[in-house]
Amino acid sequence: MRLQFIAIDPATETGDSPTIWLDQEKQEFVIQGWKADADLRAQVTATPAPNHTPGIPEHEDIVRLPFRMANALRKALDAADELG
User: 64 forms bridges with which residues in the sheet?
Assistant: First the structure.
């Protein structure tokens, strides 16, 4: 797997903050974020989405990113467009 670093949370002070990479080989976004707590997991499970089975499959999870990382997400999307 070849990861391309995109950005880390601009408010980080310790280096263990939300981060975004691109996996160029698998053509996927790789996101490190804060774990979802039980309340958020329950809200996600209870909020209907079109063509979506309720619940969180065992092979998936929820991560949270702060709004201040919106530019990092845009940068990741632009980088993916350049690769694809």
Answer: 34
